Amino acid sequence: MNQTSATQDAAESIGSAQGDLMGLAVLGKTALALGLVIAVIFACSYLLRRINAARGRGDRHLKVVTSTAIGQRERVVIVEVEGTWLVLGVGGGQVTTLHELPAPSEPERAESASAEARSFAARFATALRANARGTLGRRDSRSGRGEDE
């Protein structure tokens, strides 16, 4: 009887080892399938980027210079078309030409961009100084005292 129970124990351990191997095989197949799906997603995103990049090069005659929202669905857009700037009103499913003017030359654009950047930097610095003065003069909410007390 002792040998029979030993044989049964050996058979059970072999059966459990086979079950463990089957579980690992299923896990491996699942991991492989997941890796394949992720590879397909990356390949599709790469192809879409390449296709969109190729499309973007073809629009050399039309260029959006700037765009500003003036409402929830309304925008004013400046578009450059062959040396002419068109000021367009876009909204409600319509595009309306508001104004047409010649496009400035490249040096003029660079000058205005640098002047705009300087003015922004100056305004930002002024706002930071004003904010710093405003926060220093406020009362400390934790202690209930101002800085002069």
UniProtKB/TrEMBL annotation:
The keyword Cell membrane applies. The chain crosses the membrane at residues 30-48. Pfam families: FliO. Keywords: Bacterial flagellum, Cell membrane, Membrane, Transmembrane, Transmembrane helix. It is found in: Cell membrane; Bacterial flagellum basal body. Signal peptide: none annotated. Coiled coil: none annotated. Its main location: membrane. The keyword Isomerase does not apply. InterPro entries: Flagellar_biosynth_FliO, FliO/MopB. Belongs to the FliO/MopB family. This is Flagellar protein. It comes from Modicisalibacter zincidurans. The lineage of its organism: Bacteria, Pseudomonadati, Pseudomonadota, Gammaproteobacteria, Oceanospirillales.
